[in-house]
Amino acid sequence: MAEKSAQSFATHVRWDPAFHFFGMPVLLITFIASIVYVVRFPSLMSGWAVVFFAAALLLALKSRLYALRVQDRVIRLEERLRLATLAPEMRARIGELSEPQLIGLRFACDAEAPGLAERALKDKLSRQDIKKSVVGWRADYWRV
């Protein structure tokens, strides 16, 4: 297995080459080509091809979004449990953190997470603001 490179705010975005650079471009190009074809050669079949490829594109996008949504729910649970363990004194306030805040906190190391969570609550930090504030980056190589 290839060695994992260090993650930071600048390098944590995850690209899936099969999805982002092959599957989606092929579907998008085919959808556009089907629109061009229906304009040049209108028929019931060419119109149906546009509908079919639009559905295929939508299905691919929704499948990706469903996986990300489930993963966000797991991250939310994981971060609530981690914060409850790391900072029992703030257990009552963990529920006040929004889902985006919890997702941003997943990159904070254990020593930094409780303080950053308090700051996120006090200053109403966004997911991006939290990630930018992380000093001790905790890599997440499992993100879909």
Describe the protein's architecture and organization.
By secondary structure, this protein is mostly helical. The protein has one domain. It contains 5 helices and no strands. The chain has helices at residues 17-40, 44-86, 99-105, 113-123, 127-133. The longest helix has 43 residues, at 44-86. The mean pLDDT is 92.
Would you count the extended β strands for me?
0
Integer tally of domains: 1
Computed structural class = mainly alpha
The residue fraction in helices comes out at 55-70%
Low-confidence runs (pLDDT<50, min 5 residues)?
Answer: none
Counting DSSP H or I runs of 4 or more residues, the number of helices is 5
Question: Average pLDDT across residues?
Answer: 92
* Largest beta-sheet characterization: none
Roughly how many Å is the radius of gyration?
21 Å
Task: Write a brief structural summary.
The chain is 64% helix and 0% strand.
Topology:
Elements: H1 17-40, H2 44-86, H3 99-105, H4 113-123, H5 127-133
Q: Any descriptors?
A:
144 residues; mainly alpha; 0% strand; 64% helix; 5 helices
